């Protein structure tokens, strides 16, 4: 077991919003979450106290953050301040995003 290179077995695995698998890894103050949104998948309206930033890895997704709506694709960044309602959908095909949370979301360790 390495303190610098986690194995897949050391990562958290969860399913959020019924159909969206995520793989997570947390350090002392921040957390990564690799999100695989299936075609037609929805990460429905929610908010959390943690700040969230990320980047689209593949596919396209529609982000609704506060009162703004933006379709993002590979390489596009996003920022969601803590406490702001948001929703993400992948209406045209599967999409993958890498989220970063600060502080750590303990429920997704």
UniProtKB/TrEMBL annotation:
UniProt cross-references to CDD domains, sorted A to Z: cupin_KdgF
- In the record, which residues are listed under signal peptide? none
Protein's organism: Urbifossiella limnaea
Domain Cupin type-2 per the UniProt entry, residue ranges = 34-100
Concerning InterPro entries, the annotation shows:
Bacilysin_H2HPP_isomerase, Cupin_2, RmlC-like_jellyroll, RmlC_Cupin_sf
Q: What is this protein called?
A: Cupin domain protein
């Amino acid at each position: 077991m390495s303190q610098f290179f986690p194995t897949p077995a050391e990562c958290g695995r969860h399913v959020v919003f019924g159909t969206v698998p995520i793989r997570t890894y947390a350090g002392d103050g921040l957390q990564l979450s690799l999100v695989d949104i299936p075609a037609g998948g929805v990460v429905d309206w929610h908010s959390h106290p943690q700040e969230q930033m990320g980047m689209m890895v593949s596919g396209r997704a529609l982000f609704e953050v506060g009162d703004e709506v933006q379709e993002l694709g590979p390489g596009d960044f996003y920022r969601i301040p803590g406490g702001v309602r948001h929703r993400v959908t992948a209406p045209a095909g599967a999409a993958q995003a890498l989220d970063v949370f600060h502080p750590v979301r303990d429920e997704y360790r």
